Amino acid sequence: MKTFTKFFYLNKIQAIIIEDELPAARFLHKMIQEIRPEWEVTVLPGTIEDSVKWFAENPHPDVLFLDIQLNDGNSFLFIEQANPQSMIVFTTAYDEYAVQAFTVNSVDYLLKPIHKDRLVNAIRKCERLLSLHENSLSKLLDLEQLLRTIAEKKEKQFRTRFLISVPKHFYTIQVTEIAYFYSEDKVTFAVTRDGKSHIIDFPLNKLEEQLDGKQFHRVNRQFILSVDSILDIQPYFNGKAIIKVRPSYDGVIQISREKVPALKLWLDEPYI
Question: Which residue range(s) make up the domain with 179?
């Protein structure tokens, strides 16, 4: 008796048989189970209508054994309607459909009566392709995870200092030393906790991207405040508010009614 050795072992492969002749469907089911008892094999009614409905309501199998002539038409119509995301092995008594079968990316084309060695070859071919697909998917998922990790690390890398340029020399200030930023006449200033102002070579919209949102919040078009700089918030007319800061600012820091809720949320809750 001839024996068949598996190319490799895959668990829980899902297979579907669509065959209009019940004895032929049972015979094919029995052969597949003898060759791969670990596969889960289901027989569907041999009609286009029932099969299309099943594929619309259920996860598509890994492998589809498909008869070409079904009770209510040609199985190529089923493929057009159901768009099965499965590897297709055609099982038919007609060899004239072979060329058309391979235009729909079928894996194999088995002529009836189906010989066991031909079925084994078709199964092995499906297993090889499934293995390649799984390896490719695994590599893709690994790459996605790597890119996600890099992105997360990049998101957490905020600016920690600024280089300040003044006539005849340069110096740095740490972000932790800065109480707030403000813009005036298209010039950006950083006010440190000792009350000194330093010119920064970035507009406020760029600073927003570089500063840790846990510590800094843009309250209006002119100011970005650190949480520690806010001394007091006083209600103003029409739902607006006035913010007092330290070190003190000579002008008025006003926040619109629309921005007050976001400011309260930022002050009240940890930044996520």
Answer: 161-268
| Residue pLDDT tens, the chain, 272 long | 333 334 344 458 999 999 999 899 999 999 999 999 999 999 998 899 999 999 999 999 999 999 998 988 889 999 999 999 999 999 988 777 777 877 777 889 998 889 999 999 999 999 888 887 766 655 556 666 666 655 665 556 789 999 999 888 999 999 999 999 999 999 999 999 999 999 999 999 999 989 998 899 999 999 999 999 999 999 998 889 999 999 999 999 999 999 998 899 899 865 44
Q: How many CA atoms lie less than 13 Å away from 250 in the CB half-sphere? A: 3
Residue ending a domain, among 118, 149, 180, is 149
DSSP string, 20-46: SSHHHHHHHHHHHHHH-TTSEEEEEPS
Nearest to 72 by CA among 81, 64, 63: 81
Same domain, 180 and 133: no
C-alpha span between 211 and 175 (Å, rounded): 8
Reported as type and span, the H/E element at residue 60 is none
